[in-house]
Amino acid sequence: MDKNRILGEAYFLRANxxxxxxxxxxxxxxxxxxxxxxxxxxxxxRTSIDRIYAQIESDVxxxxxxxxxxxxxxRIRATKAAAQALACDVYLTRGSSLFSKPNDLESAILKxxxxxxxxxxxxxxxxxxxxxxxxxxxxxxxFEVWYDYKNSATNRLCNFFMPxxxxxxxAYGGETVMLPSHSLVNSFEPGDLRASTTYTVLSKEEEKYYxxxxxxxxxxxxxxxxxxxxxxxxxxxxxxxxxxxxxxxxMKAEALIMTDKINEGVGIVNQIRNRAGLAxxxxxxxxxxxxxxxxxxxxxxxFEGKRWYDLLRTGKVNVFRAEPEFVQGRFMLPVPQAEVxxxxxxxxxxxxx
Length: 353
Description:
Layout: H1 3-25, H2 49-66, H3 80-95, H4 104-116, H5 131-134, E1 141-145, H6 157-161, H7 182-187, H8 195-198, E2 199-201, E3 218-220, E4 240-244, H9 245-258, H10 262-275, H11 286-300, H12 307-313, H13 317-320, H14 337-342
Antiparallel strand pairs: 1-4, 2-3
């Protein structure tokens, strides 16, 4: 086995894990040395967020150095480009924070450029947009989590988005945990090639497949899973895409706009619009360009786990979450009480809880 590749994957996964923790909980315990016995003190205090990000940066750069440029198998193992995409995300996020470093946004651009110069990745055609999610490992995929019902590896994506259809043929399995917002549906322009893949409205004719009370409701349509035969439950085994090329392109566009290279950033946004069959747009102000970018990310990356972090990063959460029940300033998750019971050093609790 290739020792460097294995080490690179380990560094990549640790960087990604701490990035998830930092974005959702802020300061968390930083543990980078192994424990060798149960008698050791495994319950430590939280580490400052700037130190967490320093460790993430160190790990992801080490992963980039150790990982191969490409792999011969599916795009479900970390490569140099996967590390570069994660690094781009990390630099963009930290560069928009109160603990930013002077060159974070420029570093995000450089990591994006490294991927854009890699011929292993290119945009899928607009006509094949659905294939990105339904056929797995597309030409624009950089890193995705693998699932296959034949190997008893499934997830809940279909359950989250698809309608309930108890005892119907050919396949059931939806729980409708999530629905597209009116804001998302209404944001698609006429002729947008992504719209039919992103959402669907069930018609009366489809009542033979789904329960009558779901007809006329709008559902997410990216994750359809696998149906093997009539009467068999739908298997939810779409791969979960962590990074793909349009995400990286739009992250670069954001960094360019934030460093006052507005025309160049908007030009990248228009490349994504062109793939979707849409005419280019122009923006000359930084505020207008960021709004255009966020609108495009909302449509391109819908249901891919990006939107909340986009709004946080650009300071737009309070603009889009104005409903009375939303607690203003609540940008982090609470530390679970079960974890506090095990380790009281996790206190104080995150603010607003």
